[in-house]
Design goal:
392 residues; 2% strand
C-alpha cells in the first residue's frame, strides 16, 4: 500500500483546479464513479442497523434468483477487470519489464488476500475458527489469474479463456457426481462446489452455512474469474479507436445479449450467486456493461461530471473504504457502553436505539446503513482532500 500525491499512479490534477474531480488528467472518471456507487452499495448491504429487518432487495437471494444485493460483488469484479487493462497497458507503455510486472501483481495479490484474512479474524482474532475464503480473497485470486491471462494472451485468447471457464464450470456442476448424492444436484451443500469446499476447506469456511460450504469457495471462483474477464473485454472495447457513440452502442448491444442469454440458459442452470453459476456470471456482466455504458455516456461523453464527484471520491479509495467500513462495523458491535440504568450494551445497539428507532423497523435499519455509508464517505473525502490515495 502506498500514499501518493497523484491518484493510483495517475498524473496529478491541474494546479489551477486541484479540488475538482474533472481536472484530473488521464482518468476515466466514469469508471471511478461506477466503482464508487458499487462500493457504496456494498457497504449499504453489509451494514443494516437490524439484520432481522432488511428490505428484500437489499438482502441476498435465499438461493436461485437475484436481488440488488447480489449485483454488487460481480459488478466490482467486472470493474477490476476493466481496471486491469488500463493499469497493465500503462505499465507496458512505460516499458516495465515482465518480471517487474509479475512482482507487482503478486505483491498486490498477497496484500488483498492478507487483508481478507485480517477482516475474517475480526473481532475475536481466533485463528482456530478462521474463515479462509472471503470477498477480498476472491478479488485477489481473480485479479491474479486475470492479470496472467491479459499478459499472456491477446483478444482471441481472452475470449477463449472466458468461454472455457464458463463452460468447464457448467460441466463440473452438472456432470461430476457427488458421492452419495449424484451428478447435477444444485441444492445448498449438495452440489459439486460444496463437496470440494467440504474436503479442502473443512473447518475454515463461513459458519453461516454450518461450515459445510462457502459462497466464496474454491470451484465457484472459476466463473468469478470469467466475470472479471468480461470487464477486460469491455476495457479493450473502450480503448479502441471507435467513436464514443459507437463504443456506447457496442456496450449496450453486448449487455442486451448477455442478460437475456443468462435468463434463457437459466432454465437449465439457474442464476445463483451463492454458487456463482455461469448464467449468473453472464447476466451480471450484461447488467454491469450496460450500467458502465450509462456512466461513460453521461460523464465522459456528455460531460456531466459535477454530480459524480462524491461517487468518484469513494471510488478512488474503494478497497480502503471497504475494509475500514468492516473494521468500523465490528468495532461498534464489540465496544460496550453502560446506560444510565447500569445496562451494558454495544455501541451499535446504543446508537441505533437512540437515533434510528423512530420509524418503520426496516426504514430504521436502512437509515443506519446510510449513516455508515456517509461516515465512510467522510473518510474518503478527507483522504481525497489531503491527496491520500492508497493503492492496494
Amino acid at each position: 500500500m502506498t500514499r501518493s500525491n497523484g491518484i493510483a499512479g495517475i498524473e496529478n490534477a491541474e494546479t489551477a483546479s486541484t479540488s475538482d474531480i474533472a481536472a484530473i488528467k488521464g482518468r476515466m472518471i466514469s469508471l471511478d464513479a461506477f466503482r464508487g456507487i458499487t462500493i457504496a452499495l456494498m457497504i449499504l448491504v453489509n451494514n443494516p442497523g437490524d439484520p432481522g429487518n432488511v428490505y428484500s432487495l437489499l438482502s441476498h437471494a435465499a438461493w436461485n434468483g437475484w436481488t440488488i444485493a447480489d449485483t454488487v460483488f460481480p459488478t466490482f469484479l467486472f470493474i477490476v477487470g476493466v481496471s486491469i487493462v488500463f493499469s497493465l497497458d500503462k505499465q507496458i507503455e512505460k516499458k516495465v519489464s515482465t518480471p517487474a510486472l509479475m512482482a507487482r501483481i503478486l505483491k498486490r495479490t498477497v496484500i488483498l488476500f492478507a487483508l481478507g484474512i485480517f477482516v475474517n479474524i475480526l473481532p475475536s482474532f481466533d485463528l482456530s475458527t478462521l474463515r479462509i475464503p472471503g470477498v477480498l480473497q476472491r478479488i485477489a485470486v481473480c485479479y491474479f489469474f486475470v492479470c496472467l491471462i491479459v499478459l499472456k494472451s491477446g483478444l482471441r485468447g481472452r475470449i477463449l479463456w472466458l468461454i472455457a471457464l464458463l463452460a468447464s464450470y457448467w460441466l463440473m456442476m452438472r456432470f461430476i457426481p457427488v458421492p452419495g448424492i449424484g451428478a447435477g444436484v444444485l441444492e445448498p451443500g449438495k452440489n459439486f462446489a460444496a463437496w470440494v469446499d467440504s474436503h479442502l476447506l473443512k473447518g475454515y469456511m463461513w459458519s453461516y452455512y454450518g461450515g459445510k460450504w462457502d459462497p466464496e469457495g474454491i470451484v465457484s471462483t472459476i466463473p468469478a474469474i470469467a466475470t472479471t474477464l468480461f470487464g477486460v473485454l469491455t476495457a479493450q472495447w473502450l480503448k479502441s479507436s471507435f467513436s464514443g457513440g459507437r463504443k456506447i452502442a457496442g456496450m449496450l448491444l453486448a449487455g442486451s445479449l448477455l442478460m437475456p442469454a443468462g435468463l434463457i440458459l437459466g432454465h437449465w442452470l439457474p442464476i445463483n450467486k451463492s454458487i456463482w453459476t455461469s448464467t449468473f456470471s453472464m447476466f451480471m456482466a450484461g447488467l454491469a456493461v450496460v450500467s458502465l455504458a450509462f456512466f461513460y455516456w453521461f460523464i465522459d461523453i456528455a460531460g456531466f461530471v459535477r454530480w459524480s464527484k462524491p461517487l468518484a471520491i469513494l471510488g478512488m479509495n474503494a478497497i480502503t473504504v471497504y475494509v475500514l467500513s468492516i473494521v468500523y462495523g465490528y468495532s461498534l458491535w464489540t465496544l460496550e457502553l453502560e446506560t444510565s440504568a447500569g445496562e451494558k450494551i454495544s455501541c451499535h445497539s446504543y446508537l441505533f436505539r437512540y437515533f434510528c428507532t423512530h420509524l418503520d423497523p426496516k426504514v430504521d435499519s436502512l437509515l443506519w446503513a446510510f449513516w455508515i455509508v456517509l461516515s465512510m464517505y467522510l473518510v474518503a473525502w478527507i483522504m481525497w482532500r489531503k491527496r491520500i490515495f492508497i493503492r492496494i
